[in-house]
């Protein structure tokens, strides 16, 4: 039988390998597994559903977005929420970029708020990426942000005062700015000068009307970097557990 992996473009192969590694080495029976959002995570869901269908793994999943929920349900996986499971054994997600100091920029898919909540709720936070995303410069990616709809104009000046230029997010096929699964408005901020990620992450969230932003400075436990034919795991044992024991 043809190996599907061989027919994938290089970047997709890299994503698939990172996803497989996370699943094989860090997901165990009876785990409650938080599942991120995006094209890399789709490979994780596919591999997960195959293992579960073969009775080789029994887990409960908690999705970080409606799209991921749909994928999990279509794949026949058992789905729950943070209401039933406020503590996740592990949370596997991807990122838009990862800096050399392991700061993540997330939210390209618009799921940043749930993603940050889930990362905080997890005993282990694992990031899977292809090798084009690490290490990347902090300024190489805009910062996604979720805003309460009636605050879209009041946040502009405070964001500007922090050094950022705020733009609403628009896409083809939708009239008006993109909204999140939570019914809020999504935007993106461009910073032209280096900023302190921890300070700006907090300062943005202090602006009235900002729900969450896509700078993730919380500790990740593992970074799994897929390359077309190999995979690298960076363990961060010195990092504090996300959920203090
Ligand atoms: C969604 C995210 C995703 O993790 C990020 O956009 C990466 O997606 P992809 O795997 O498609 O590159 O933060 O909100």
Topology:
Elements: H1 4-7, H2 10-26, E1 32-35, H3 39-53, E2 60-63, H4 66-74, E3 90-93, E4 97-98, E5 104-105, H5 112-121, E6 125-130, E7 143-147, H6 156-161, E8 164-168, E9 185-191, H7 197-205, E10 210-213, E11 215-216, E12 222-226, E13 231-235
Parallel strand pairs: 1-2, 1-3, 3-6, 6-12
Antiparallel strand pairs: 4-5, 5-11, 7-9, 7-10, 8-9, 12-13
The structure holds ribulose-5-phosphate.
Which fold name is given in CATH as the topology of the largest domain? Rossmann fold
| Binned strand content | 15-25%
CATH architecture annotation of the largest domain? 3-Layer(aba) Sandwich
> Which residues form runs of ≥5 with pLDDT under 50?
240-245
Helix and strand run: HHEHEHEEEHEEHEEHEEEE
Distance between the termini: 47 Å
Tally of individual domains: 2
Number of helices: 7
Bound molecules: ribulose-5-phosphate
Strand order of the largest sheet: 2-1-3-6-12-13
Outline, from the CA principal axes? globular
Number of beta-strand segments: 13
Largest sheet: 6 strands, mixed
What does this protein structure show overall?
The structure is a single chain. With 245 residues, the protein is of the alpha/beta class. It folds into 2 domains: 10-134 and 218-244, Rossmann fold (3-Layer(aba) Sandwich), CATH 3.40.50.1360; 138-213, ACT domain (Alpha-Beta Plaits, 2-Layer Sandwich). The chain is built from 7 helices and 13 strands. The protein has helices at 4-7, 10-26, 39-53, 66-74, 112-121, 156-161, 197-205, and strands spanning 32-35, 60-63, 90-93, 97-98, 104-105, 125-130, 143-147, 164-168, 185-191, 210-213, 215-216, 222-226, 231-235. The strands form 3 sheets. It has a 6-stranded mixed sheet with strand order 2-1-3-6-12-13, with helices on both faces. It has a 4-stranded antiparallel sheet with strand order 8-9-7-10. A 3-stranded antiparallel sheet has the order 4-5-11, covered by helices on one side. Bound molecules: ribulose-5-phosphate. Ribulose-5-phosphate is lined by residues 36-40, 93-96, 106-112, 115.
